[in-house]
Amino acid sequence: MGGGGQQTDRITGTNGRFGTYTWEEVQKHTKFGDQWIVVERKVYNVSQWVKRHPGGLRIIGHYAGEDATEAFTAFHPDLQLVRKYMKPLLIGELEASEPSQDCQKNAALVEDFRALREHLEAEGCFKTQPLFFILHLGHILLLEAIALMLVWCFGTGWINTAIVAVLMATAQSQAGWLQHDFGHLSVCKTSRWNHLVHKFVIGHLKGASAGWWNHRHFQHHAKPNVFKKDPDVNMLNAFVVGKVQPVEYGVKKIKHLPYNHQHKYFFFIGPPLLIPVYFQFQIFHNMILHALCLSLSYLFSYYVRYFLCYTQFYGVFWAVILFNFVRFMESHWFVWVTQMSHIPMNIDYEKHQDWLSMQLVATCNIEQSPFNDWFSGHLNFQIEHHLFPTMPRHNYWRAAPHARALCDKYGVKYQEKTLYGAFADIIRSLEKSGELWLDAYLNK
C-alpha cells in the first residue's frame, strides 16, 4: 500500500486503513476533499477534519501533501491533547527509508530549531506572567474610562473631542494587541480558556469576530508572504508587492491601477481604509455567512456599549462620525505596525522551506525599546513571534538572542531595523515594486 510498504490488518478510526507511504504518495493528496499531511512521520487524512479545525478551514490545506510537524508544534501549546484528537485521522506512517523532512529541507537546521524550542521551553519562555496581561487590560479600560469622563466633564467641543478620539483609538489599538495574545493561545494555561476569552476580548472590546480572525491570521502565520496562501498579501489588485508579482502583472499587461504610483496612493487607500471599510465588511460578511451567533452577540454588545455611552452627548449622527474617526486613526496605527515587518520582505509563491527559513525571509524585527514594545504590542519582535506564536510576548526578548545565534549558524539573514526605517521601507518597497511593474508592462 502507499509507496510499496506492506499493508497490515490494523484499522484506524474512520479511515479504514493503515500502511506505510513514500513522500511521492503523500504529495498526491493536496486537493480540497483529498488532503493528507505528515506530522512526526505519521500520515493523517485530514480531508474532512479541515471543516472542523478550530484554526480555520484553509490552514491545514496549506500543508496538504507536506510535512506539517513544525507548524503543528508552533500552533498548539498542548500537543498531547491535540494528538488525541488526531488519532482517528491516522492512516499510516512514512516508510523507514523516507527522510523525515520533505522537499530537500535541511535536516540539521530542523533538528537544531527543535532543540532550540525545547531549550526555551525548559527556560520557562512559554510560561505566562498573568500580571502582565492584567495590567495591559487595565490600561485599556483606564483609557476608555478617561475618554468617557472627559466628555462627561468638559463637553463635546472640538479640542476635547479630538483628545477623546485619540484616547479611544489608543485603547482600540492596544485591545487589538491583547486579543492577538489570546488568539495565539499564549495567555491562559488551556486552549479552551484562551479561545473563550479571545471571543470576549475581540468581540466586546473590539467589535470583531474571533472566527474571522482565526481564519485569516493563522493562514498568515502558516505561510507568511506566500501568494495564494497568506491573505495578508492578497491586495485585491490595488497593489503589486514583492519582486515576482509586479513582473507577472506587467508581462500580462494587467493595469487595474497605475501601480508605478502605488507608493503615493497607498496613503489614501491603505492605512485610512483597511479597518473602517475592508475589515468591517469582511467581519460582518463572515459572521452572517457562517452564522457565528456568539460572535454576533459579543459584537452587538460592543456597539450597544459604545452608543449608550456616547449618543447621550453627541447624538446618533455625531456618535457615528466619532466612531468612524476612531476606526480611521486605529487603522493607520494597525497598518503601519503590521506591514513594517512584512511588505518590505520577500513575497513569492510557495517554496516549501523549513519553518525557520520560511519565517525569516518574510519577517524582520524592529529595535527594542519600552515605547516600541508598547506601541507595537511587542510585534517589534516579529521574528520571535513568528517562530514561536504561542510564546507570551513578554518573553520574546529572552528568545531573541538564541534565535539570532541559530540564524547566524546556518547563514539565515536576521534583520532588525529602526521604527522609522521600517516605516520608510514600506513606501520604498512599494515604489520599487511599482517600477518593476512599469518596466515589465512597457518592455516585456
Looking at this protein, list some descriptive labels.
disordered N terminus, Flavocytochrome B2, Chain A, domain 1, two-stranded parallel ribbon, globular, 444 residues, mainly alpha, 7 strands, 5% strand, 5-stranded mixed sheet, 18 helices
Provide the helix percentage. Answer: 55-70%
Could you tell me the strand content as a percent range?
5-15%
How many β-strand stretches?
7
The count of helical stretches stands at 18
Cα radius of gyration in angstroms: 23 Å
Spatial arrangement of strands, main beta sheet:
1-5-4-3-2
> End-to-end distance, in Å?
49 Å
N-to-C order of helices and strands: EHEEEHHHEHHHHHHHHHHEHHHEH
Uncertain stretches of 5 or more adjacent residues: 1-16
Describe this structure in words.
With about 450 residues, this protein is mainly alpha-helical. The strands form two sheets. It has a five-stranded mixed sheet. It contains 18 helices and seven strands. About 60% of the residues lie in helices and about 5% in strands. It starts with 18 loop residues before the first strand and ends with a helix. Mean pLDDT is about 95; it is low at about 1-15. The chain is globular, with a radius of gyration of 23 Å. Among the domains are: about 20-105, Flavocytochrome B2, Chain A, domain 1, CATH 3.10.120; about 130-220 and about 270-335, no CATH class. The protein has helices at about 25, 60, 70-75, 80-85, 105-120, 130-155, 160-185, 190-205, 210-220, 245-250, 260-270, 275-290, 295-340, 355-360, 370-375, 380-385, 395-410, 420-444; strands at about 20, 30, 35-40, 40-45, 90-95, 365, 415.
